[in-house]
Amino acid sequence: QLSTALSNCFKCDLHRLEEGPPVKAELTREQGLQYYRTMQTVRRMELKADQLYKQKIIRGFCHLYDGQEACAAGIEAAINPSDHLITAYRAHGYTYTRGVSVKEILAELTGRRGGVAKGKGGSMHMYAPHFYGGNGIVGAQVPLGAGIALACQYQGNNQVCVTLYGDGAANQGQLFESYNMAALWKLPCIFICENNKYGMGTSVERAAASTDYYKRGDFIPGLRVDGMDVLCVREAAQFAADHCRAGKGPIIMELQTYRYHGHSMSDPGVSYRTREEIQEVRSKSDPISMLKERMLSHNMASVEEFKEIDIEIRKQVEDATQFATSDPEPPLEELCNHIFSNNPLLEVRGTNPWSKLKSVS
């Protein structure tokens, strides 16, 4: 077996940059298996969420990440756990890559006590150290991400903030305000547009006069990357992080990716695009299959090894599901807890004068 292989990455499209990330990326066997495991875990977790939603065990908003796994896995491989990351509401994948267990994510989706946000956040509001969520308002996480980058600069800790948004949010005014301030103050912020071709049910061509999202920072350098190839994403994210840490200010990355599900679970996802289109992406550029094929062709791992990993992940997701469906819901007396980070007992006004609610932090 080979322990290391050089792989070709597609050349990035560049904006206001002399040179981009390397076109050849090195992949070790350990890294390859780790990325495979990460992406496959997110895939299986999302398919399980789909199943639980259809059984009405998960309710409310639920936006699935399957198809886009290479983005989360590639970015995480390029930054440090101490760096910061904030995203929109398609957040299950990043919650996992930022270190939260499948068990805590699924229990959060089912609204149980053992969930990562104690069952009170649900699909769109999960948090972890250096992970600022899931944000339910379109585009609102972008100014917040710039603010986190300002904090990094202010504290002088050489950390960066990865600020993610979709092609749907890319036309929001607040993005351009954030770009402007980030560029003026040279904030260590990597703005990443995960372009999955559709904002809800509207294709990018119908929504944006310019679909070159990587150029839309105008005065901010940008690069466009194949978001279905975990190695391309990793190399580009590494390049972007180095750019920020060198004090050159913000940078924009557009990851061209695709979601297999609809916008959310209430969208069947086939009224504005054909089943054939989805099938073609699945068969030609699935991030997990592509990594697996690459490793097999370089003789870096065997079919059996991948099978073993798949079995292991399936079991992990099944165990997590067992927990997420049997864990109790949070009790009513915990309804108002944690309003403030460190407060003495607080009386909270309820919906009527007789409700006696208390908040403990």
UniProtKB/TrEMBL annotation:
<keyword id="KW-0597">Phosphoprotein</keyword>
<dbReference type="InterPro" id="IPR029061">
    <property type="entry name" value="THDP-binding"/>
</dbReference>
<dbReference type="InterPro" id="IPR017597">
    <property type="entry name" value="Pyrv_DH_E1_asu_subgrp-y"/>
</dbReference>
<keyword id="KW-0670">Pyruvate</keyword>
<feature type="domain" description="Dehydrogenase E1 component">
    <location>
        <begin position="38"/>
        <end position="332"/>
    </location>
</feature>
<dbReference type="GO" id="GO:0046872">
    <property type="term" value="F:metal ion binding"/>
</dbReference>
<dbReference type="InterPro" id="IPR050642">
    <property type="entry name" value="PDH_E1_Alpha_Subunit"/>
</dbReference>
<dbReference type="GO" id="GO:0005759">
    <property type="term" value="C:mitochondrial matrix"/>
</dbReference>
<dbReference type="GO" id="GO:0004739">
    <property type="term" value="F:pyruvate dehydrogenase (acetyl-transferring) activity"/>
</dbReference>
<keyword id="KW-0560">Oxidoreductase</keyword>
<keyword id="KW-0809">Transit peptide</keyword>
<dbReference type="GO" id="GO:0006086">
    <property type="term" value="P:pyruvate decarboxylation to acetyl-CoA"/>
</dbReference>
<comment type="function">
    <text>The pyruvate dehydrogenase complex catalyzes the overall conversion of pyruvate to acetyl-CoA and CO(2), and thereby links the glycolytic pathway to the tricarboxylic cycle.</text>
</comment>
<dbReference type="Pfam" id="PF00676">
    <property type="entry name" value="E1_dh"/>
</dbReference>
<keyword id="KW-0313">Glucose metabolism</keyword>
<keyword id="KW-0119">Carbohydrate metabolism</keyword>
<dbReference type="InterPro" id="IPR001017">
    <property type="entry name" value="DH_E1"/>
</dbReference>
<keyword id="KW-0786">Thiamine pyrophosphate</keyword>
<keyword id="KW-0496">Mitochondrion</keyword>
<keyword id="KW-0479">Metal-binding</keyword>
<keyword id="KW-0460">Magnesium</keyword>
<dbReference type="GO" id="GO:0006006">
    <property type="term" value="P:glucose metabolic process"/>
</dbReference>
<protein>
    <recommendedName>
        <fullName>Pyruvate dehydrogenase E1 component subunit alpha</fullName>
        <ecNumber>1.2.4.1</ecNumber>
    </recommendedName>
</protein>
